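Reopening this ticket.

The earlier resolution said the output was attached, but the attachment link was broken on my side. Pasting everything inline this time so it's all in one place.
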Amino acid sequence: PHVVADFRGVPAPRLTDPEALERPVTGAARAAGAQVLSAHFHHFGAGAGVTGVVMLSESHISIHSWPEHQFAALDIFMCGAARPELALDFLRAALSPESVQVTTVARG
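Inline output:
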């Protein structure tokens, strides 16, 4: 499945540090039973957001953050035995959003 999630009301400091975001996103992948191949996280400057992607054997997880809006957009796409809902739960616990909107798309 392909899970798209909007996290609103995330504390801004959790959305500005690429290294601090890489840890929970790779942790979410492992919690879902996925194999991490590589990760790349890019910071757009002081007070700005982060774009990150974790490449998986099973596909990918990406995150785009806008700390000024306390918002993060997540894309969790996995195949095989990996369970994207576990990755979503892990990220919800790590980022503490006030609200989450989730759309699940059946692929393949």
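Reporter confirms the inline version is readable. Strands lie at 2-8, 36-43, 50-56, 59-66, 71-78, 99-105. The longest strand covers residues 36-43.
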